[in-house]
Design goal:
By secondary structure, the protein is an alpha+beta fold. 20% of the residues lie in helices and 29% in strands. It has five helices and ten strands; from the N terminus they run βαββαβββαβββααβ. Strands 1, 2, 3, 4, 5, 6, 7, 8, 9 and 10 form a ten-stranded mixed sheet that branches. A hairpin with an 8-residue loop joins strand 2 and strand 3 (65-76). The protein is globular and about 65 Å long.
């Protein structure tokens, strides 16, 4: 027998995930704390006996949810994806669910192949809270001016430096005084809608997002809705490129990664 015979061929897999972020310290693996990617990787290892390296379309922060998060990884093609998904969902429900799975081209990468990401932030604007919405929306008691918030949102569409709305990554060592990564992002759309019963949705789509960008934008726009800021200030805040110019960061539990777009 030829002991050097090749093993099963490796192929790329694409999963679409939904998860409740409350139980996790973000998406990306982190030593000593539960994360979405870490939990999924561990489960895949137990089911397949294969160590996978996940690539995720969005590195959601601690407490942020996902409905359309996309991950990719390599797996021997001898595996039955339907059976893997059934086992995964049995192990990980209700906190993590694989909504879709498929074999994809070898050059597909959930992060680098993505054209855009779409996030939704939910604000419950009622005098009293709702226990059934408290884990997935930010309760704001003060009545909000939706028209002013939408007017302010228009300033974000297009390509801008979002340094005023992003948390800059910490740098250390010899490179700590070097310029940080670019915070320039291209926002495709940004809009508010009233979906009824006091629930407001902020939808934003961009080619990419930097850390805390959506939550910082929402926190600032809510201040506009409270008439603590003017809608016309947004352009000046963007141009200032200073984090101190923007408003408070909205809490993470109102934010959800809804969809990721890829070439047809």
């Amino acid at each position: 027998m030829d002991s050097g015979s090749p093993g099963p061929a490796l192929r790329r897999v694409r999963f679409v995930l939904a998860y409740h972020g409350e139980a996790y310290h973000g998406f990306a693996p982190s030593t000593g704390v539960p994360t979405v990617a870490g939990t999924l990787s561990d489960a895949l290892r137990r089911i397949t006996g294969y160590d996978v390296v996940l690539s995720g379309a969005g590195r959601t922060d601690a407490g942020v949810h996902g409905w359309g998060q996309v991950v990719s990884f390599t797996l021997p093609d001898e595996h039955d994806l339907d059976k893997i998904v059934k086992s995964l969902n049995s192990m990980l429900e209700p906190h993590i669910v694989v909504r879709d799975s498929r074999w994809v081209a070898d050059d597909f990468d959930a992060r680098f192949s993505a054209l855009w990401r779409h996030y939704r932030y939910r604000v419950l604007n009622t005098p009293t809270g709702n226990p059934f919405e408290s884990a997935t929306s930010w309760h704001v008691e003060t009545p909000l001016d939706l028209r002013a918030m939408q007017l302010a949102s228009d300033a974000f569409v297009g390509e801008h430096d979002f340094s005023a709305f992003c948390r800059r990554p910490k740098q250390s060592g010899p490179s700590k005084d070097a310029p940080g990564p670019s915070m320039v992002r291209r926002v495709i759309s940004a809009r508010w809608s009233d979906v009824g019963d006091g629930m407001l949705h902020f939808e934003i789509r961009a080619n990419a997002f930097c850390q805390q960008m959506v939550r910082s934008i929402v926190g600032t726009l809510v201040e506009v809705g409270m008439h603590r800021r003017r809608a016309g200030e947004m352009t000046g805040i963007l141009r200032a490129s200073s984090r101190v110019m923007a408003g408070h960061v909205a809490p993470p539990h109102g934010l959800c990664l809804m969809e990721v777009g890829y070439p047809a």
